[in-house]
Amino acid sequence: MTKRTIILAHAAARATAHRAVDEAPAGHVVTITEPTKRRIQEEKYHAMIADIARQTTYAGQRWDADDMKRILVDEFADEMRNAGSPLHHDGRLIPSENGRRVIQLGIQSRDFWVKEAAAFIEFLYAWGADRDVRWSEPGLYPPVRAESREAVPA
């Protein structure tokens, strides 16, 4: 039997899952998990992180989008911990062997569940709003007249 993934989205999918369990040989394993993030969520938070990296500083300096992503994921994980709902794959810090560095292990945005990715996007909106980030997402702001920089009435 090959590996199967069945998304329990409706009654027919649930029936298929029941059949697969009933037909599985003894010793096979069934794992039911929350859904992982969707591609559209990933695209959105990467665009938001790029906006933040272009427009803000952290610890007094600018960071490229890859570094800013690590910073923001760490900030998000800390906020989730403090709120009493740590990420399902929360990280940990360990000292380097020589004791001169701290190494973070475990937190990867690729492992976000859908609800964690949604919470991360909300966190990014709040983080950016606190720093006056102007999002590049189309449709968020009213059109502006080039000559006057005034919003065009809707």
Give a topology summary.
Blueprint (H helix, E strand, L loop, with lengths): L10 H13 L15 H17 L9 H18 L9 E4 L6 E4 L8 H17 L24
Antiparallel strand pairs: 1-2
Helix pairs in contact: 2-3, 2-4
Brief overview, please?
This protein is mostly helical.
Describe the structure.
The chain is mostly helical and 154 residues long. It has 2 domains: 1-32, no CATH class; 39-130, NinB fold, CATH 1.10.3790. The chain has 4 helices and 2 strands; from the N terminus they run αααββα. Strands 1-2 form a two-stranded antiparallel ribbon. 12% of the residues are buried.
How would you describe the shape? flat
Q: How is the main sheet built?
A: 2 strands, antiparallel
Tally of individual domains:
2
How many E-type strands? 2
CATH topology of the largest domain: the name is NinB fold
Biggest β-sheet: strands ordered side by side in the sheet = 1-2
The portion of residues assigned to helices is 40-55%
Distance between the termini: 58 Å
